[in-house]
């Protein structure tokens, strides 16, 4: 069965610092991978996705993620965090059925 | 496009009452998903439809929950009778085949 692990429940970074959010997945074949962001009281917005091809994918708001098959990871990165990035981030995996299996989320706090 | 539209945004109801949540997917999207978000269980897929046909309802917690999609532009999730443990945020999402899932703003349900 597919599963997604986000080992960090909370992460706090200073504004302007770099960010890396971890995501590990369990899936037998090459999965479809996603990062979504959720601001308080809002729905989920897609940041980026990996379906195939280049393992480094660029997303919106300056985010990027790298698919590493050998590590079953799809970590999210941003070189310089802005206060508006404070939110909850969800990694998700999908197979050909298109249904998403989500990780438990990482809440990002940004120090001024 | 207006995106996925859910109504109501908030619902407070008494235990034992029937609750109906509504969703209008993005036009042209063949897949529709209902998710539930709680602190304890995170984001869970309840059911999804392809071309208005339910494909996988294994996530529906109990017979008290039912979902329908009478046409391509409308779906409902019904809980009858509702219980306090059903309190959660319910999200609807839609996508094309091999596409990205777009989420609605969610319905926050409180059962007292």
Order of helices and strands of chain A: EEEEEEEEEEEE
Q: What would you call the shape of chain B?
A: globular
Count of individual helical segments of chain B? 0
- Low-pLDDT residue intervals, each spanning 5 or more residues of chain B: none
Strand content of chain B: over 45%
**Rounded average pLDDT of chain A:** 93
User: What is the tally of helical segments of chain A?
Assistant: 0
N-to-C CA distance of chain A? 41 Å
User: Would you count the extended β strands of chain A for me?
Assistant: 12
From the alpha carbons, calculate the radius of gyration of chain A and give it in angstroms. Answer: 13 Å
Please identify the structural class of chain A as seen in this structure: mainly beta
Biggest interface pair, residues each? A-B, 19 and 23 residues
Helicity range of chain B: under 10%
Overall geometry of chain A = globular
Describe this structure as you would to a colleague.
The complex is a heterodimer of chains A (about 110) and B (about 110). With about 110 residues, chain A is mainly beta. Chain A is built from no helices and twelve strands. In chain A, a hairpin with a 5-residue loop joins strand 7 and strand 8. By secondary structure, chain B is an all-beta fold. In chain B, the strands form two sheets. In chain B, strands 2, 4, 5, 6, 9, 10 and 11 form a seven-stranded mixed beta sheet that branches. Chain B has a four-stranded antiparallel beta sheet with strand order 1-3-8-7, with no helix packed on it. At the A-B interface, strand 6 and strand 11 of A face strand 4, strand 5, strand 9 and strand 10 of B.
């Amino acid at each position: 069965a597919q599963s997604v692990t986000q080992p960090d429940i909370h992460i706090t970074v200073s504004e302007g610092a770099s960010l890396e959010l971890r995501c590990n997945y369990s899936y037998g074949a090459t999965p479809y991978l996603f990062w979504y962001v959720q601001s308080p009281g809002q729905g989920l917005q897609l940041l980026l996705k990996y379906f195939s091809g280049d393992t480094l994918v660029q997303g919106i708001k300056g985010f990027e993620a790298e698919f590493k098959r050998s590590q079953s990871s799809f970590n999210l990165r941003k070189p310089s965090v802005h206060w508006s990035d404070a939110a909850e981030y969800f990694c998700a995996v999908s197979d050909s059925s298109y249904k998403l299996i989500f990780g438990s989320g990482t809440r990002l706090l940004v120090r001024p | 496009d207006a995106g996925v539209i859910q109504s109501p945004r908030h619902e407070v109801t008494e235990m034992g009452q029937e609750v109906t949540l509504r969703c209008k997917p993005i036009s042209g999207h063949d897949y529709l998903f209902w998710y539930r978000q709680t602190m304890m269980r995170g984001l869970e897929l309840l059911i999804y439809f392809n071309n208005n046909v339910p494909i996988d309802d294994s996530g529906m917690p109990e017979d008290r929950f039912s979902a329908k999609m009478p046409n391509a532009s409308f779906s409902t999730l019904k809980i009858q009778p509702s219980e306090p443990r059903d309190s959660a945020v319910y999200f609807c999402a839609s996508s094309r085949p091999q596409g990205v899932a777009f989420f609605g703003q969610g319905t926050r349900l409180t059962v007292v």
